């Protein structure tokens, strides 16, 4: 652990994309984080393809890749070369499986850090969900308060209408 690689959490977080309703990291970014070439990572995956089912890794379609390129200007693979093949996207489980395929210390340490970031992202999503639920409950209460306030105003209107339409009372008592 004394040789722990220091990669900022923000750098890793910025490399997590939401594609096909999943949080994923691209092989291009992972290779840079691991300090290896993308082709080396792809070869390691190809040699151990049975470890990467569709829910661990998938290849981006041309449309998905073009969309990412336009959104994030991912034109090069980090080494100044254009991508020859479409990138692969690794889910959280796929990234975890990479640690068993890539044996270097840097890859293992980087994977540990990436797993921690995925956990933080998941927790943030859960926290956001709880906040949304709280907001919905507050909105329901406010709607009920609005209805109650409207009811009070309607009662006040009825009372004021009664007072305006009230017949003058005959006075009782001594006359002067």
From TrEMBL:
DNA-binding found in the keyword field: yes
Quote the InterPro entries the UniProt record gives.
Answer: KilA-N_DNA-bd_domain
Task: For this UniProt record, give its keywords in alphabetical order, as a comma-separated list.
Answer: DNA-binding
**Ranges of residues in domain KilA-N DNA-binding:** 14-101
Q: Which GO terms describe its molecular function?
A: DNA binding
Keyword DNA-binding assigned to the entry: answer is yes
Q: What is this protein called?
A: DNA-binding protein
Provide the species name.
Flavobacterium gilvum
């Amino acid at each position: 652990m004394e040789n722990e690689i220091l990669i900022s959490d923000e750098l890793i977080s910025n490399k997590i994309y939401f594609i096909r309703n999943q949080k994923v990291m691209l092989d291009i970014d992972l290779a840079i984080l691991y300090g290896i070439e993308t082709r080396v990572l792809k070869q390691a995956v190809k040699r151990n393809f049975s470890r990467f089912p569709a829910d661990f890794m998938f290849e981006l379609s041309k449309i998905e890749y073009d969309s990412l390129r336009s959104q994030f200007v991912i034109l090069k693979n980090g080494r100044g070369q254009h991508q020859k093949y479409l990138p692969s996207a690794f889910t959280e489980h796929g990234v975890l499986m990479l640690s068993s395929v890539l044996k270097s210390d840097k890859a293992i340490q980087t994977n540990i850090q990436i797993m921690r970031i995925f956990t933080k992202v998941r927790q943030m999503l859960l926290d956001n969900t709880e906040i949304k639920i709280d907001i919905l409950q507050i909105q329901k209460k406010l709607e009920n308060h609005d209805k109650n306030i409207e009811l009070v105003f309607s009662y006040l209107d009825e009372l004021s209408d009664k007072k305006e339409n009230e017949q003058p009372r005959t006075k009782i008592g001594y006359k002067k």
